[in-house]
Amino acid sequence: MRLFIALSLPPDARGPLTALQERLPVGRPVPEENLHLTLAFLGDQPDEAVEALHDALSTLRAPAVPLTLSGAALFGGKSGQAVGLEADGGKALTEMFDRVRSRLRSAGVRVERRRFRPHVTLARLKGGADASGALSVLAGASIGPVVATSFGLFRSHLNRDGAIYEALSVYALVL
Ligand code: 3AM
């Protein structure tokens, strides 16, 4: 199973994010129910890992994370690009990221050492597509502060049209 851990976004972020998606001149928008902020990408994991991950994550007590989403973000390369907004969650977000990583380590899950670049992906572009129009729309956008009150363990189902994300479990953050 292809798994990742992400903050869920509250309704007051999803509304403005979908409005922004409608203004993008190119790209396939991420469906509203799939919008999230990735904390850790776990890649392919054996089915048995899910229970261990649930045990590790369900006992994590952490405060809700205030988020401001602003600044155009571009990811990827020739095979396909993604555009979105950078996310600023201050100390609460950095600490949440550290806590999740430490839980993953204790659960024996390998985590990448890649630098954490918090963002919300809004649309995926085909390889070679010109992202500049989308980036200029995103450059002028600012959403928040909004408060993320939960995070979850998600499964990514890859299909021909992209990925569908399924929440395997959702955990509350402390308000
Ligand atoms: O939608 P975002 O950008 O938050 O880009 C993938 C997506 O992130 C990312 O994990 C999320 C769920 O698929 N992802 C996919 N492959 C990855 C990899 N090898 C990856 N992140 C880091 N390393």
UniProtKB/TrEMBL annotation:
Listed EC numbers: 3.1.4.58
HXTX 1, short sequence motif: residues: 36-39
Pfam families the record matches: 2_5_RNA_ligase2
UniProt key word Hydrolase: yes
Residues forming the catalytic site: H36 (proton donor), H119 (proton acceptor)
Domain of life: Bacteria
Catalytic activity: a 3'-end 2',3'-cyclophospho-ribonucleotide-RNA + H2O = a 3'-end 2'-phospho-ribonucleotide-RNA + H(+)
Motif (HXTX 2): 119-122
Swiss-Prot/TrEMBL keywords: Hydrolase, Ligase
InterPro entries the UniProt entry points to: Cyclic_Pdiesterase, RNA_CPDase
GO molecular function, one term: RNA 2',3'-cyclic 3'-phosphodiesterase activity
Family to which the UniProt record says this protein belongs: Belongs to the 2H phosphoesterase superfamily. ThpR family.
PANTHER family, per the entry: RNA 2',3'-CYCLIC PHOSPHODIESTERASE
Alphabetized HAMAP family for the sequence: RNA_CPDase (MF_01940)
NCBIfam families: 2_5_ligase
Purpose: Hydrolyzes RNA 2',3'-cyclic phosphodiester to an RNA 2'-phosphomonoester.
Annotated protein name in UniProt: RNA 2',3'-cyclic phosphodiesterase
Organism: Sagittula stellata (strain ATCC 700073 / DSM 11524 / E-37)
